Amino acid sequence: MYSLLLAIIYIAFISLGLPDSLVGAGWPVMHQDIGVPVAFAGILTMIIAGGTTLSSLASERVTRRFGVGVVTAVSVGMTAAALFGFSTSTSFWMLCLWAIPYGLGAGAVDAALNNYVAVHYVARHMNWLHACWGLGASISPFIMSFALSSGAGWPSAYLVIGAIQIALTFALLVSIPLWRRVHPLVPASVGEGAADAEASPAGSHTAHVPLARALRIPGVMLILTAFFAYCALESTAILWAATYLVQDRGVDPATAAAFASLFLLGITAGRFLAGFFADRLGDRVMIRGGFAMVGAGAVMLALPLETTVVALAGLVIAGLGCAPIYPAIIHSTPVNFGRDNSQAIIGIQMAAAYTGSTLAPPLFGAISTVTGMWILPLFLAVLVALGLVMTERLNRRARVAP
What we know:
single chain; Growth Hormone, Chain: A; 17 helices
């Protein structure tokens, strides 16, 4: 049963990634078909991000009430309904309407699954599971591309992904008893202490942790700031790296696009590789090393060399450095704050992540219109420094705690 549930969780993480890149992949055609400006994509993504943030904040209470299995099944079902709704939408207001369950479903399942894996599985699975998210996020643009090139149109891509989500919903509904019976509780990560060893296991019916109380837990604001910084730098690099390479470094647009995609593929591949070292090195080392690699990649991007090879290599290195940070921050949450508090704090972390991912790219866009694209490596370096300082302060606090 342990292996069966783990397989279901892996599939669920692939499913989490499938809808995330559909809007971006299809929007160049979608906005023309429904007759709205291309900039309206920002409205749509803001609605989705808002719903995701709200459901992340509510996930602790909902998960304690209904259990991880039920929350996961219902959330995936909501996402499936939203995808089918997108496929039938003929106007922008309809897309906005369906964007609400699109976001609400994503946030609750993301927080619930991340906490369940952080508490019950070792660090390598957290890395490999997030690599599966990247796999899902990489697959859906190809589905959209095939739908457009075959003449089926963008609605058919949403139908296909929606059908996949429906199938997964039924599988999750059948698996609900497994979530209650299988609890492979793991010890704290290697080399990181066992501050929470006496805490009750997640999944037990402990008291609800209100948002205000969770925010007052020592160190929580530090990790929220670090998570905000990481997700801000990741989303900014994904959106603006190709434009930077073309406008500031004179790279051919096709080459720049290829290497920008390698940044995302570097995150996915890096998480598969990180899984082999995560248990041995521990979450803190993985976070520290990841930020250091991203910083090195940002420096390579900024070097004013005649060749662009170093800048392109820097982008790939930055992607590899990003790989272990997100999974390691999530996996270390029960160790840093106790298993009783982990679901509430991971929900808040998800909200901080979505806030950073939503606000940072347009903020950089506004800054770059004044300064120019040259500022991208500096912008990324500032976020790296913020994330590294916050996580190191949290580590120092944990070492001196009684």
